[in-house]
Amino acid sequence: MNNQITIIIPTYNRPSEIARLLHFLADMGSQYRVLVLDGSNDDVAEKNRVVIDAFPLVEHYRFESSLHLGMRLHKGLELVKTPYVLMCGDDDFFFPDAADRCADFLDSHSDYAAAIGQVWSLRYYPQKLGISNGIALGNDLDVGSRFDHVRFIQRAMFYFAYTAVGSIPLFYAVRRTESTRKAFSFMTPDIKYSSMELLTNGLLLIDGKVAKLATPFGLRDYGSVTTRDPEREGATRYIPHEDIAYIRPLLVDALMRKEALEAGYAEYTVDSLLQLWEVDAIPMEVSTESSWRSRMRSGQYYFLCLAGILAPTWLSGVLGMPPATYRAILGAHQRFTARRSST
To answer: Which of 300, 195, 212 is closest to 251 using CA atoms?
Structure first.
């Protein structure tokens, strides 16, 4: 049995998918302890049990169907005994040798909180199966370990940017167990899934750097237009205000504890992170009473400038926008901001 990584697979009423994943891991020679956290209905859970019993290293844990996914993951993480954990959706795949490389990397780099590799996406069409090269994070997440507002926001911005274009989030990386367990201890019975992801990944980014290794890591199954969650496709507010009110102080406290920051600077940094997810979630007002804040630009312009410095090549490759065009847009926004501030 692999003593470095434990695999956690939450599942809910998808017996075909969980069977497919377990057979795939067996075919790939997986030696991991696998914990299946099953919130399925009774009849589906029984089908899952029959499949799972055929795999000696896989353990089946039943939960009430009404139990929130975050609470289920919190309980599952309490069962992990290895230094690293990998959480995988029941409809996705990862390559065991790549996970091992990530664990080896974390062993030798104590300032990193997680590692992942290259990920491809699967999409189903009427006459074909599409496999596209996913962009699992960016090399720009690999920045200095000493806390710095710009460096932290750089990591956060690239996490949100790459997630926004449909790539694998940090949720699926090989992560340090203790920090992951602590992050999921803040789950509540009614927290929204998107808020759960924001909180746990925000805590991860505070905890350390994230490495993207040059190795194929896995496949993420996006299904088809008819199988995707319509709420995710057309949500007007991804993070509810009540969840932000819960998440914000937790992230601020984590930053202050980790980096010994003053409260105002930690609050500004967390508000910056929240704005990356949803611009109107936190009002970004520049205060003349605080020296550290008065030196900052308006929140929106600050991040556009940062993106302009870091991301023109990425935008040209992913969104098809020429770097010169993107810089021109930034320049126009700069002139608009200057005129507005002078009036």
So the answer is: 195
Alpha-carbon dihedral angle through residues 172, 176, 177, 179, given to the nearest 10 degrees:
-100
pLDDT tens column, 259-271: 777 888 888 878 8
CATH code at 128?
A: 3.90.550.10
Give residue 327's identity as a one-letter amino acid code: R
Q: What is the pLDDT of residues 290-313, one digit of tens each?
A: 333 333 333 333 344 344 333 434
Contact 222, 123 (CB under 8 A): yes
User: Could you tell me the residue range of the domain that residue 81 belongs to?
Assistant: 5-234
DSSP character at residue 127:
T
* Closest residue by Cα to residue 37 from 65, 67, 68, 73: 73
Number of residues that make up the chain: 343
Maximum Cα–Cα distance across the chain = 72
DSSP 14: -
For 86-112, b/e burial (b = at least 16 CB within 10 A) is bbbbbbbbbbbebbbbbbebbeeeeeb
Predicted structure pTM score: 0.72
The answer to whether residues 330 and 301 touch, using CB atoms and an 8 Å cutoff, is no
Handedness of CA 228, 229, 230, 235 (dihedral sign): negative
> Based on the structure, what is the number of domains in the chain?
2
